Amino acid sequence: MDQEHSAKDRLSYPYNQDLSGVLRRMNRRTPFSRQRLANDPVTAAYVRAGMQLIRRHLGPGAERVLNDPEDENSLGRPLLSFLSQRAVVAELAKNPEPFPRVGTTATLRCSWRSHSDYIADLLSFGLWSLHEPALYDSRIGPDTERLLDGPDFVEAAHRLCFYDLTTVVDGPTFRLELVATAASEGDEVIQEALAANHQGAMEPWKQVYQEMFLARGLRLRPGVSLDDFAGMLAALASGYALRRIGNPALVSIDTSEERCIFGTAALALLLGCVERVAEDGAAEVSIDEAIRELVYGQPQGERQQPVLPAPPHTSQEGGPASSQGETCAFSARLDQLCNDQQSPEVRRAATALRNLLSQPHA
Predict the structure, then answer these.
(1) Which of 69, 117, 297, 344 has the greatest CB tally within 10 Å of its CB?
(2) What is the mean pLDDT of the chain?
(3) pLDDT of 160 above 70
(4) What pLDDT is recorded for position 303?
């Protein structure tokens, strides 16, 4: 036992820690045996080996090996190994009518210079088709019009977010995007496909947002560009989709009301990022300034001055009604405001008050 602990202690962090609360499916019958196996150095070695494989293939610093030394785009893509040429040809035979169902690896190689080029085009199509419904889905058009005019803005925004999230979650292409993103480090082909399609997916919506702002008399706050706003909304959609796929209970979707939390988040983002077009002479308010006004109750730029202490209470006859302790505390605070590194206005006001109080009563 002592030798086991010694070997365990010599492992690097975090493998030298108690892993019994982490590795909870060890193949042992009793809790004691499972705990012991979870903290066995051999178990730690297997765990580290797996982590190294993840790092090697996914990054950061993922290793990239050329399948063809003469083709710089022929990077091996282990996460996409299910898309091998043989697998694609075998799947082609299962295509429904009227798609052709006869093909060979030779014709596949003839159509694309390398399998990397095929993968890049497949990613481009998959990511494009992920967002393409926005351009033709019969549900989308009417609600985008309602964003521009009429009283149903909030309801339309909720429905559009519902359509977007359900389209992403219910299709395979977002999952392809996740796999491609995980494998993209050091792979310019995948990176370019991801970047181009992300940009292309946001362009139609950026036009909708711009028209919405103009029609509703809104503008983005200083420091927030249209690209920023569109990117934040896209990030919200991707984040909620990822959580929904990983654990549906975390992101509820109300199909009867056609609502989901993404709609609420999108409206909250809109509320924070836009403001009414100001009248002539009105100052523009940034997000930081709006938050300061909301949280602190004052716009940025209004310096919060130290509050002068209230003078001691006096009786109707003019004599002090405060206790001697309160009077001493007041005087000490007043002296502090006069002598400390306060703003000139505070020092002048405190000095004037102290001089006034020091004068004998008439």
Answers:
(1) 117
(2) 77
(3) yes
(4) 45
